[in-house]
Amino acid sequence: MSRETIVLGAGMVGVSVAYHLAQRGRPVLLIDRRSPGQETSFGNAGIIQREAIYPYPFPHDLKTLLRVLPNRGIDIRYRPMDMVAAAGPLFSYWRNSFPKRYEKIVPEYASLIALSTQEHAPMIAAAGAAHLVREEGWLELYRTAQALDGRAQKARIAVKDYGVLAERLDRRQLDRMQPDLSASVIGALHWQNSWTVASPGDLVLAYAKAFENQGGRWLRAELRSVAPAANGWRVTTAEGAHEAAEVVIALGPWSARFAKTLGYHLPLFVKRGYHMHYAQPETRRLRHWLMDAEKGYLLEPMTAGIRLTTGAELANLDAPPNYGQLDAAERVARELYPIGQRLEPLPWKGARPCTPDMKPIIGPAPKHPGLWFAFGHGHQGFTLGPATGRLLAEMMEGEPPAIDMTPFRVERFCA
Ligand SMILES: Cc1cc2nc3c(=O)[nH]c(=O)nc-3n(C[C@H](O)[C@H](O)[C@H](O)COP(=O)(O)OP(=O)(O)OC[C@H]3O[C@@H](n4cnc5c(N)ncnc54)[C@H](O)[C@@H]3O)c2cc1C
Known about the structure:
FAD/NAD(P)-binding domain; 2 domains; ten-stranded mixed beta sheet; six-stranded mixed beta sheet; globular; binds flavin-adenine dinucleotide
């Protein structure tokens, strides 16, 4: 008899978990206070990052630290008081970014990334969502030869050891792919086997419909509490209570709050980010996803317009927005490429759910049978949702998971 399961959170991660469980014949109820894919999984850069085998380390070199310190940068900003509040997790993040520890994390992280496009593919097909996805890769632009050389060297390792496809482009080759770029760009890396999505929220919505087509149910309700009950779990929402044999917490940046009520004090923190859409210039079109790598923002030709997404803001999840980082990125972006006027009155704000060792938490909760975790995917949750869904479903069903899941267990953060 299949075990009834409630999945909490309908972002890319929760929807993918629900999809994989329903595919295995489980009765699944997916709960979110908003429609599927309306939070972090809505506002991201929309790249399914097959190339992202190197998770973002905490900067250590003096040059970067001195650049970040005045807090006027484009790639990283911080709210000093909020950094104090997150000092423990950030200190651990800093320690895990030293070469000895970081070099151990890379192959573990790469084992997940290797499943990224592979696990999106069948879900895209089942959801009839191929029109949202392009399999043409994306461009990482460079302004100095030194930075491009350094990145190209790391790319060679990614190609040789981790199945990434990348090509170094000089300015002439780049112009053929994407004309009208600023003269300050000297070349690029073309990450060829990563995919891009023209409306990330719509892809999650399409996956949620595919979940429903497999018999899954979803409920729009504000979650109030999760607690053990006589026959499993009791989930209380603003609309009423529901019981199930098993529960999955996949609440993205909100996960730590609910895990804490069950006695799991997890060192999660967030890196917030912003986006704004701009009109395409009148006589030309942005064709490709571009990262202005030495500045630290991206431009993406989305359905809604050209989306500019910012780098990281280290701040509390609920702190008021600060649009300075987006404004600074916009000024540089206008020099890079002739984006048109803003299309929305206010920028979107979201938060990458991060862990101190840059790896997500995927697996069973050690103190509670029937409680499962799937969160903390940081910069790559949109990429890793379907892989996470498959792996967690395999663990929950007692099937051997496709990769070793030890590096992703929650025990590394709590006894
Ligand atoms: C600017 C930016 C750019 C990014 N670009 C990329 C990219 O190109 N590629 C990539 O792979 N990743 C990218 N990311 C990261 C990625 O977006 C996240 O890792 C991912 O969306 C996390 O998915 P999730 O399902 O864990 O969380 P979410 O999508 O946030 O889902 C969590 C869900 O929980 C629900 N919820 C929370 N509290 C409650 C409650 N009390 N009751 C009911 N429901 C609740 C929310 O409504 C939400 O739907 C980017 C992130 C940002 C901010």
